[in-house]
Design brief:
With 495 residues, the protein is α/β, with parallel strands linked by helices. It has 19 helices and 18 strands. It has two domains: 213 residues, Rossmann fold; 223 residues, FAD/NAD(P)-binding domain, CATH 3.50.50.60. Helices cover 36% and strands 18% of the residues. Bound molecules: flavin-adenine dinucleotide (FAD).
Amino acid sequence: MSGYKLLFSQLKLSTFRGTRWTSRFHEGFGGCGKAFLSSNCPKVCIVGSGPAGFYTAQHIIKARQDVEVDIYERLPVPFGLVRFGVAPDHPEVKNVMNTFTQTAKHSRCGFYGNVNVGSDVSVSELQQAYHAVVLSYGAEGNKSVGVPGEDLAGVLSAKDLVGWYNGLPNCRELSPDLTCETAVILGQGNVALDVARILLSPIDILKKTDITRPALEALAESRVRRVLIVGRRGPMQVACTIKELREMVNLPGSRPEMVAADFEGVTEALKDLPRARKRLTELMLKTALEIPSEKVQERRKNASRIWGFRFFRSPVEVLGNPNHRVAGIRLAVNRLEGSGEGSQAVVTGEVEDVNCGLIISSIGYKSLPIDPSVPFDSRKAIVPNSMGRVQQAAGLYCSGWLKTGPTGVIATTMNNSFDTAKSLLEDMDSGTLDVSAPKTGSQSIRTLLDKRGVKLVTFSDWEKIDKLETRRGEACGKPREKLLTVEEMLNVART
Ligand code: FAD
C-alpha cells in the first residue's frame, strides 16, 4: 500500500469520517468553507459552479472520505444557469440551490468565485496543483441562425434575453426594444417557451418573481402583444415539454392562435407515439383544434395577447427597415421527409413574410474552448470525452453541458455529472489517476491568483450577497432583488 493509501485508510477510521466543521471553523479557514484534511490527500478541482460542477463535487465528496474538492467559478456568484437561465417564474426549480449550498459548505469543499479559468489561471496550472481537474463550465456560446440581416437591431439571442431578465452581468446593457406588436421566436424548445411566457406574462405575476428590476420595468411598458414560435418541422417534433406548453395554454391574459392545417394527419399518428410525446401532442391538438369550454372561451375572449406555433418554417432572411431595424422575417415553407423524431425538413420553394419588430433566436447554446491546452471538438462544440474522461488528457475530466452538448434538464445534468465523478473515482481506485504525489491544491492557486490581483469570492462572501439580495427582495415582495454588476457583487463580498 502506498504511503498515502495507508494514511487514508487510517484517516477513514479517525475523526474525519463524515465529519462536518462548524461555521466557526469555516471562518477560521478564511471563509472558504474548507478545513484542510491533510496536505497529501487527493485533490480535485472543478471548473464551473453550475449543476454539473456541484453534482460532480457532491458525488466525489459523498463517495470518498479522503478527497478534497475545490470549485472555481468565473462569476462572484455560484449556480450557473440555475440563477441565470431558469425562468424567474419557476422558483421551485431553483430549490436545487439548497442542495448545492450543502455541498459548498461541506468541510472538504472549497468555493472560489470571480476566477476566470483560461485567463486568470490556466488549466495546466490547475493540473499542476490538483490530481484531477473536471471541466464543468457549461455552454455559454450561442448558435447563430446564419441568415442575412441577422445583425440588424431587434435581432436578439434567447441566451442574451434570458441573461438580461435574470441579471447576468454581461447582459445588463441589452435593453431590448419592446415597442413592437409582434415578436418572432426561432426555435420551439423549452427556452423558446420560457421567453414567450415572460414576454406575455401579466406584470402582476412577474413582479412576485426574482426577475430583475430593469426587466420588470421594461416589460411593464412592453407593447408586444403577439408572439409567434417558429419551428422547421411539425407539431410532432417540437422540442418543448408538456409542462411548458401547459403554462402557455393557461397563461392569464393570452390566447393561443394555431394554424389548423399544420395538424393534418396528427390525430391519426397519435396512437403510435411514445407516451410523453403522445401527451404533448394531444395537448397541442386540443389547443389548436378543439372548441374550448365556455369558461375558457370567456377567458380567451378577454385576452389581449396572443401566442402561437408556426410549424414547417425556416428563417431565410431578416427583413430590415431604412433605420436598420427589424421589420419582418422571410420564412421558407417546409415539408417533412420521413416521420417521427428523425424526419427532415425540406424546403418547398415557397416563402412567407411575417411582419415583426423583434426576433429572438432560440436555436441552442454551445460550449466554447477556454484554454488552448484542452482538446476541443469544434464541430460538436464539446470537449471530446469517453464517460467524462477527456480524450488524450490524463487527469482531465468533463461533466454537464460541456460533456454532452447543451441539451437536457438539471436532472439529466445531474446523472451525467455523477457518471463523470464515477469515472474519476474508478481511475483513482485503479491507479490510472496517480494520486501518490502530494499536490498543493488551492493553497498555491490562491497565491498565484493573489499575485495576479484576482479578488477571490468565497462561499461565505456569496452568502453576504445572497443575504443582501434576499433582504432587498423582501422589501418589494420578491424572493430576491439581484445585484446586477460584478463590481456591486465584489463590493458586497468585501464588506
Ligand atoms: P451551467 O449551468 O451553465 O454552469 C456552468 C458554470 O460555469 C457557470 O456558473 C459559469 O459561470 C461557469 N463558467 C463558465 N466559464 C468559466 C470559466 N472560464 N471559468 C470558471 N467558471 C466558468 N433545467 C431544468 O431542469 N429546469 C428548468 O426550468 C431549466 N430552465 C432552463 C432555462 C434556460 C434558459 C437554459 C439555458 C437551461 C435551462 N435548464 C433547465 C437546463 C439547465 O440549466 C442545465 O441542464 C444546466 O444548467 C447545465 O449545467 P452546467 O453546469 O453544465 O452549465
